[in-house]
Amino acid sequence: MAFSVFAAAPASGFSTIKPSTSCSRLGSSFSGRSLQLRAQQSRKYSFHVDAKFDLPPLPYAPTDLEPYISERTIEFHYGKHHRAYVENLNKLIAGTDFEGKSLEEIIKASHHKSPAVFNNAAQVWNHTFFWNSLKKNGGGEPKGKLRQKLEEAFGSMELFEEDILAAGKTLFGSGWVWLVANEDGDLEIEKTSNAENPLVFPRPCFPLLTIDVWEHAYYLDYQNRKPAFVDMVYDNLLNWEFAAANYEKATALLKTA
User: Fold this and answer.
1) What is the secondary structure of 152-173 as a DSSP string?
2) How far is Cα 33 from Cα 1, in angstroms, rounded to an integer?
3) In angstroms, what CA-CA distances link 155 with 129, 152, 238?
4) Parallel, antiparallel, or unpaired for β 14-16 and 175-182?
5) Beta-carbon contacts of residue 211 (< 8 Å; ≥ 6 apart)
């Protein structure tokens, strides 16, 4: 699973949990290192581009997340909602300057300029990243360097858990909760509304994992109990190996900048 994370324009709809200096906040200037990171990220992390985009396969069987996420929810969330974003995107970019570009390029070029294209492209990317942020028999706690960095950033795993759960439970309306690494390699929790994601944050930022808190992610199984859904994902489904692999990619780029 690949990603690209840089943007030039200030983004709206972001809120950061901690620390206070965040890659979702626009500073007064960019360092040469920041610009170098942007260029490296753009080249190295991108989806394969075909003439049109296809619905990426799930990284597990539709029943593998049961009993926490039902096959029926996967049928609607992945098979209908995610698929619709892919189909809409293909229709919207046909015959335009977006056609033939990578998904990340489309997301960044359309942000604040072509809302329909941005919303569908970003939601294709966000959902693909979300499915990979989950796994059968997931949850628990990370190990190794990622755990160390979480403890450094938040004080302890218990405090990190409190913060990320609070972020998911208190996000108003539809959106996403992200664990990210900033351009210094420090970890942060970010909340974004609607289709917004770290690819359009003002500063270089590496997403490590995400939790989808759009209503269609949980309503069939949990109705209006969004807090119960967020707790369930953290306890039982989070894919810490995916997050750790993304952190390794981020630190490899940071070392070359």
Assistant:
1) HHHSSHHHHHHHHHHHHHH--S
2) 25
3) 27, 6, 20
4) unpaired
5) 130, 133, 164, 168, 176, 177, 230, 233, 234, 238
237, 218, 194: which is closest to 76 by C-alpha?
Answer: 218
> What are 10's two structure tokens?
């200030």
DSSP codes, 39-106: HHHHHHS-----SS--PPPPSS-TTTTTTTS-HHHHHHIIIIIIHHHHHHHHHHHTTSTTTTS-HHHH
Q: Which tokens belong to 117?
A: 């294209």
Instruction: Return the structure tokens found at 107.
Output: 């997301």
Torsion, Cα 217 147 236 59, to 10 degrees, reads 60
Q: 235 by DSSP, 3-state: which?
A: helix
Question: From the first residue on, what is the mean pLDDT of each consecutive set of 10 residues in the chain (257 residues)?
Answer: 32 38 50 50 45 91 98 98 97 96 96 97 98 98 96 97 98 96 95 96 93 97 97 98 96 79
Is residue 218 within 8 A of residue 25, CB to CB? The reply is: no
Q: What's the token pair of residue 197?
A: 């994601």
- Report how far residue 126's alpha carbon sits from residue 107's, in angstroms, rounded to the nearest whole number: 11
Q: How many CA atoms lie within 13 A of 120 on its CB side?
A: 18
CA dist., res. 49 & res. 103, Å (int): 8
pTM for the full predicted model: 0.84
